[in-house]
Design goal:
mainly alpha
């Protein structure tokens, strides 16, 4: 029984390490998206300004798709980050409770 518990703890710690690593990667991605957001707005504004001078449905469509894809990807990144942080928060809370139970049983 002791070995099984030890194996479970090792697996949990490895999983948490992987979640922490994933969380850092997603935070980095979110940071890069934020860095380039002003460029996106600039492209969209310039495209809208250009559309005032010319009639080009293809350009209008491409600008709309660019904005939609940006919002969709940003939303996915934020959702994934929230999910990973919730898992870490839950695990940390559970580990703290287990440690307190262990201390109380000694």
């Amino acid at each position: 029984m002791q070995i099984l518990e030890y194996d479970i703890i090792i697996i949990l710690k490895a999983s948490i390490s992987l979640i922490c690593s994933s969380s850092l990667s997603v935070k980095g991605l979110r940071g890069r998206l934020t860095e380039h957001q002003h460029k996106l707005y600039q492209v969209l504004d310039e495209g809208k300004h250009l559309l005032q001078s010319v009639c080009c449905p293809a350009l209008e469509n491409q600008l709309a798709l660019l904005g939609e894809h940006w919002l969709n990807n940003t939303s996915k990144v934020n959702t994934e980050l929230q999910r990973l942080e919730a898992i870490l928060k839950h695990w940390t809370r559970s580990e703290t409770c287990q440690n307190l139970n262990c201390l109380g049983s000694k």
